[in-house]
Structures are given as structure tokens and as C-alpha cells.
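Help wanted!
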Amino acid sequence: MYLRAASIHIDDSVLIQQSQAGDTTAMERLILKYQNRIHNVILKMCGNPDDAAELTQETFVKVIESIDKFKGRSSFYTWLFRIGVNLTLNHCQRSARTAPRSLDAEEPAPDGQTRQLLKEFLTDDRAVDPAVLAQSRELCALALQSLLQLEEPQRTVVVLRDIEGMTYAEIADVLNIEIGTVRSRLSRARSHLREVLEAMLT
Amino acid sequence: MKANPNLDELLCSFMDGELSPRQRTEVQRMAARDQQVGRRLRQLQNCRTLFTALPQVEAPSDMMEQIKLSLERRTLLQEQPVAPRRSAGTLHLVFRKLVAAAAMFALLGVLGVVVYQIAAPVAGPESPPFATDTGRLQPIGPDWTAVPPTVVADAGFSGRLELRTASFASMDAFIRRAIENVALSDSTESGAAGDRRRYHIVGTRENINRLVASLSSAWQSAGAATLYVDRPGDAPGPVAVEAVTPDQTVSIIARNSTEASVEAAEAFAVMNDLARQTPGDEILAMIGEDTGSMLAFAGIPKPRMTKPDDPTNTTLASPQGKPNASLTIVLLDVE
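Answered by r_m:
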């Protein structure tokens, strides 16, 4: 997981004030600070690298165009992700309408080694080493594949929590929902994900 | 262990650090005491690890350049003043359409009035028209409208034709010759007062119309011609047909009843008034040049509500020889 803004120590509020005053360098710093994280979230949500790049670009264009309207009622971080997530959800809905995914499409079955690694992540008798995942590109592909099988609302909370590392309060702010809704939706999404992954082993 | 939604929510919140310290302690105790809870907690933690440990993907290296290019494209597009021009064009088109629609409605309204004047059914007279012939030349005073109308037998036509001319003497001579030529000298009384000459002619509609027709060639020398058609009975005021033409006059006199003549006069009055008010004098020119079509239009027999014994229920003109028309020609010197 990213360590948020670990390498850039200038506070967001300062950069925002400078950007609103017309300082393009400040805006570039904000973009550089968040571009990888917003791109990573969008890619996990939509599953397509080209679309993710375009949506990331569109997100920052909207941020630049709307920076004067940002009043600081929420944090810049959640405001930025709200723009990116909304753009991505709209894109996913358009894509689902124009090119619905075939329910009959056969996903490639995991090979023996990948199957064994996946079993370790589904075990309940001991905790697994996260470094195992880095050893198998196929296992990563399976995880992403299972993520894309969730409905968009469930997928979004899993991505924002487990991949971006947001708190429940931040997720609620980004999605404009109650924290209780975040809690229940996240719990159901994880249960669903486990069922999807178990189905891959059978 | 089967999923328990409430337990899963609690365990998820525990994993995500969203519980209070006391709640965390409770969950830890519960997981330690209950083996099933502990196993479910590990299941959820391992599953979550599968996603938290996914490698991060960096944004494309040219992201900043792409953002700048996108902004430039948008700026260029916004600089195109397409919207204002389209807006102005749309407003102009809407304005033109409104003006056209208003003109169309106005024209339809005027035409409707004209058609109604011509074709609307009217009630027939309750009783045969009263007719007398005073046969007395009325002196022409300064108040032209004060001259009492002359009504002849058979409820025929009664009216005054006012001709204003700058060639008073020649026009007066022309009218005298015309009266002689149509053999109406015996039934004509004339008189003069100041700059006016008055001819009171009584005869049949056909004879009067022959006289009017013979005046056609001299009509143009009259600066203005106005025909006043008397209404039947006690109806107030005559119908004034300004800028009347010889053809219109003939058409009005030729009607087979006083009411029909009055209605025709009213129709021509509206038509001529409309023509004068229309810019360009196009309709006026058409009326002036028209020799048949408009006259035919104005001469369409009107539907009439009649009774079986209605003496006006006939389309034939009165027999010749019986005076049923009275026309007073007033010649005014305007020089």
C-alpha cells in the first residue's frame, strides 16, 4: 500500500491556495503527489489500463477546472478521489451498456502452482505471508479477476479500503454514503470475494 | 464456518482498525475463546491480504503532458464563439417566425371579416320596403350628409355618388351628355350651389347602371369618388364606399334588393379600405385594374334566409320601366 504523500511534505492546503492564486507549479505538485494513487484506484476499478490512463487524465483536468470552486469543506484528498471515482463509475456504467460482458466467457483455470498459492490465501488455520503474492503474477491476475466480478458499489469500497487504504470515514465522504453503509457493504463484498475465489478452486 | 453477516461486519471493522479499544479487546477475547470466530477472522484477514498486497501500478510517465494537452484542447474549443453566434441566429429565426405568424394571423383575420361581410346569411325583411318618391330637388348645403335620402318604389337602390374633380366644367358637361345619351334627362333634376353641382336621377337599375358605365371613361379625371348607399328603413347612416370604381358602383346598383346593395357596398368598403392601408398600393392597383375577377368575387350571391312570401326571394332584377333606383351625383370642384 502507498504511504500517502510520504515523499512530499508540503501541505495540501498550501498547494491548493497557491493553485487557486494561479500558481501552476503548485498544481503540478498536487498532480505529481496523487497521480499514481488515483491511477491505481481507477485501474483496479475499471480493469483496463488505457481507460484508466484516460480517466486519470480527465480527473486532473476536472480538478484544474474546478479548483477555484474548492472551498475546503472536505479534504482535497477525498474531493479528488470523489471526482475520479465518479468518473470511473460513469465510465463503467457506459461500458456495461455498450459492451456487456458475456456470462459464458470462460476464464482460464489456474495452474497447479497458482491453485496451491490461492489455497494458502483461503486457509483459515494460519496467517499467510503477503510476500507470496509478489511471487506469482497469475495469482495477482486471479485476484483482479475476482475483483471485477463484484458489482461496482462493492468493488469500489474494497478498492478504496484494501488497495487505497482509506478509512471508513474517508470512503463515506468520497461516496457520499453513511459509515454504516460502508461497513456493511465492505463486509458483504469481502464475503462475496471469498466465494468467488473458492469457486476458482473447484 | 458459514458467514454470519453481523459477525463478519464486526470482524471486518476489527481488521480495519475501525473499532474502539474496548471493542477491539472484546473481539480479541472472543476470537481466542471461540475457535470458529478465530478461524473466520483468519479467513477474512488472509482474503484481505490478497488484495492489500497487490502490486501498485504507476500512472503513465507522460501523464502531466497529456493533462496539459487536454487542457489546451479544451481552451481552444472554448475560445470558439460558436454558442453566442448560434444563440443570436436562433433568436433571429424565432423573431422572424413570430413576425411571419403575426402577419399571417392578421391577414386571415381581415380576410375572415371580408368573407363574412360578403357571405354571412342575413334575415330577410319583415315587410316589403316602404317607398316614396319625393321628386323634389334638394338644395345642397355645406353639410353633405344632411341631405335626406331619396327612396324609390320597389325598395330599389338609393344612393349618392360624390365625385371630386379639378376639371369641374368639363366633367359637368360630360355628365350632362351622358344623362342625355341614356335618355334619363326627363327623370333628372339638377341644381348648383357654389362649387357643387347636383344631379338627382330616378330610373331603373339598368338605366342608372348604363349611366354609370358611360361615366367610366371620365372617372379617372375625378380625383376621388365616394359612393354613399342608403340603408333600408330606419337604419342609420349610409354605407360609404371610398375610392369606389365604376365596376363596383355598377355591381352595387345591380343587386336585386336594397339589402343586397348595402351588403355589397359594405364588402367593397372593407376591401377598398384594406387596399388603401396595404403598403405599396398593390391591392389598390389590382382593384383598379381588375375588370372581372374581383367583381365576380364581390358579386357572389349571398345565402339569404327567406320566407315563402318574402317579396325579396327572387334573383331577377325588377322589370324594366318601373323606377327602382335613385342616384344623386354630386360633382365637387376641388381646384
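OP: Thanks! One thing I noticed: Chain B has two domains: 5-51, 119-333.
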